[in-house]
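Practice problem 4.
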């Protein structure tokens, strides 16, 4: 199994970082570690100009408020992520967030399978794997928004490629909500719905839908307590144990190239990394809401590599470009990742 194909095994149950980090940590003994993060994108000049002439959409202010709430509130809750129907597609964790002077600190406890914990500091992530007594460390700040945050960008930027509306939502985890719907203006990305707590403005539930309206992914708090006392301990229970080995991820962060024209409108390169020692390049792209990672390896594809795959909202596709194999994995329709894989502009990256 190739490195990227191995990552797919760890990713098929995960889109949100809480799940993603724990899934990757569980797979780390078989595959090298990667950060499936992604971020933000400007539209083409024509599309951006047209969007700027549209009237303000209801719900944009609410999106900004929910993003701010995810950064300013302390809380503890039970998190459920379901990627497909059936027991095997369900992941559960306990999430504790405490807002400190340096920013929010998050501790995530897996409630399924082997015990695992992740602690995310503003500038570092630590994954604790007690079965192996290993701590995997990934330096650097996150470059994508993760539940219960929707986007790192202003809501006005999202309005270039999504139609935003607000309606009354059903109760979630015992709280009254407002329902925000983001309907894409093309078929290159998935529709999104999110339920926002009416008073604190924290997002309680997120769904990614197919274009036919089928629920592909769901992330939700089934139970939640908000307040500084709700998350008194964001230090891992394993932090002071002896006999553990610390492994720092061999990933070099590079400056993202400027002005790279991608084959899907609205997406931009916002982060770039080099994995050591194999030298594989990882490029992170996003339109501000939908995210994908592009893996670039100097090798020939196998028959398995060239199979397009989908699990929930997550799709993966590969394409051979001379000596280079390009694999795209992200929360996008299969046709979109195929387009990115086949027409990704390698010349601006492989020469660096």
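Answer key:
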């Amino acid at each position: 199994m190739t490195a990227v194909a191995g990552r797919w095994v760890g990713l098929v149950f995960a889109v949100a970082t809480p799940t993603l980090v724990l899934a990757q940590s569980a797979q780390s003994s078989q595959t090298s570690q990667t950060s499936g993060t992604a971020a933000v994108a400007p539209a083409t000049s024509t599309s951006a100009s047209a969007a700027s002439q549209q009237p303000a959409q209801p719900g944009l202010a609410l999106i900004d408020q929910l993003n701010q709430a995810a950064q300013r509130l302390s809380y503890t809750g039970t998190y459920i992520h379901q990627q497909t129907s059936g027991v095997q597609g369900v992941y559960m964790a306990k999430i504790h967030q405490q807002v400190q002077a340096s920013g929010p600190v998050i501790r995530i406890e897996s409630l399924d399978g082997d015990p695992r914990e992740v602690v995310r500091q503003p500038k570092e992530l630590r994954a604790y794997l007690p079965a192996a007594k290993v701590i995997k460390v990934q330096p650097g700040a996150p470059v994508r928004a993760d539940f219960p945050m929707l986007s790192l960008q202003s809501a006005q930027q999202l309005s270039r490629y999504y139609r935003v509306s607000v309606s009354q939502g059903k109760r979630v985890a015992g709280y009254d909500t407002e329902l925000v719907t983001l309907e894409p203006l093309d078929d290159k990305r998935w529709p999104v719905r999110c339920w926002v707590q009416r008073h604190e403005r924290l997002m309680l539930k997120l769904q990614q839908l197919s274009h036919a309206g089928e629920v592909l992914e769901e992330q939700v708090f089934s139970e939640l307590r908000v307040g500084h006392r709700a998350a008194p301990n964001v230090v891992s229970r394993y932090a002071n144990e002896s006999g553990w080995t610390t492994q720092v991820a061999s990933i070099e962060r590079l400056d993202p190239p400027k002005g790279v024209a991608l084959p899907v409108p609205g997406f931009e390169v916002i982060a770039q990394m080099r994995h050591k020692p194999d030298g594989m390049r990882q490029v992170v792209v996003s339109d501000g809401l939908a995210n994908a990672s592009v893996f670039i390896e100097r090798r020939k594809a196998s028959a398995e590599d060239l199979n397009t795959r989908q699990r929930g909202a997550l799709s993966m596709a590969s394409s051979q470009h001379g000596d280079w194999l390009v694999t795209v994995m992200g929360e996008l329709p299969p046709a979109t990742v195929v387009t990115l894989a086949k027409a990704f502009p390698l010349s601006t990256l492989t020469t660096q």
